[in-house]
Specification:
2 copies of one chain form a homodimer. The first copy, chain A, is mainly alpha-helical and 186 residues long. Chain A has 10 helices and no strands. The termini of chain A are far apart. Chains A and B meet through helix 7, helix 8, helix 9 and helix 10 of A and helix 7, helix 8, helix 9 and helix 10 of B.
């Protein structure tokens, strides 16, 4: 990997972490440059404005999400795929208790503002919703697949918020157990 | 009401609206002063720092929440009380599609930061959770009351986030209908 790409990757990784931990609005290009150990003047070579780095972060997160979906899609049992999705969330419970869901909190923050940046975040949420819907369709729930997907995502998002609010991973663990039971009969 | 109290009330109302519409972090004391039509220099007479005005906003929201609970507690049918709670959310769906849930988005934003301000927001969420739990206890669900309350609040919070993300009140309406059906047998 060239030195140039390395710097860009370091900037995107740093932005990803800071946006998640501090919110997008309170993260400055200077913060990102410092964390990535890249001189601030160089940042503008890669990203003219903060929105451009946000787009790069969303693209990176989308690729990560797609990798997970690709792995899970190889599981022959459809309910195992959905269980993997629920467990992936639950595994991150300590971090969620500190900073919330990385996707949910970005949608919450940018949704208020609207415009292009909100669409970037919404696009990630839509991809997640579509993947879950596809699984329920594979379970033969042609008509209710979207409604089941909305239910599952909303449950996880809501409980992630309570986990963050009360700084207690137990909220997410309890809900994950309920959702895995629900999945047996859904 | 004295002129002095009037100014303080105007500042708290303006802060409440701006924090909801724009987030706490992007709202400045100057924004609040301008919206309340109070000279910025006067703001410091009432609130030394932005955290103090946030505390006043949370206290105002707590009083508003308590007023609703007091009205609903007078309904003889316990399920009607919980239905009123669900409907109150659903009625705000157009605003939720623009700015999210006022309580959920505050908890999401301040939760990342932690500290005293996060505790103010968490306290409001705890009051809501406790009221819902009390209703399920009144329905004889002594053991599962907290779990049912968590489920109801998480469902509403999660769907409020999807409503905001996709800017579509239909998400909240669909979920409210499901929750009212669920309530019949819960």
């Amino acid at each position: 990997m060239s030195r140039k790409n390395d710097k860009r990757d370091r900037l995107v990784d740093a932005a990803d972490e800071l946006i998640y931990q501090k919110t997008f609005h309170t993260t400055t290009l200077a913060d990102i440059a410092a964390k990535a150990d890249v001189p601030l003047g160089n940042v503008y070579y890669y990203f003219k404005v903060k929105d451009e780095i946000l787009l790069a972060v969303v693209q990176k997160r989308e690729a990560e999400l797609q990798s997970l979906f690709t792995v899970w899609d190889q599981l022959p049992n459809v309910r195992d795929r959905l269980r993997s999705f629920i467990e992936e969330n639950s595994r991150g419970s300590d971090t969620i208790a500190r900073f919330g869901c990385s996707l949910g909190s970005l949608c919450q923050e940018l949704g208020k503002q609207g415009g292009d940046v909100a669409l970037y975040a919404a696009n990630l949420m839509r991809k997640t919703l579509s993947w879950v819907e596809k699984q329920f369709k594979a379970l033969g729930k042609e008509e209710s697949a979207l409604s089941l997907a909305e239910y599952l995502i909303a449950s996880l998002q809501g409980i992630s918020l309570l986990t963050l609010t009360f700084k207690d991973p137990a909220f997410l663990h309890r809900q994950s157990k309920h959702l895995e039971q629900w999945l047996e009969t859904a």
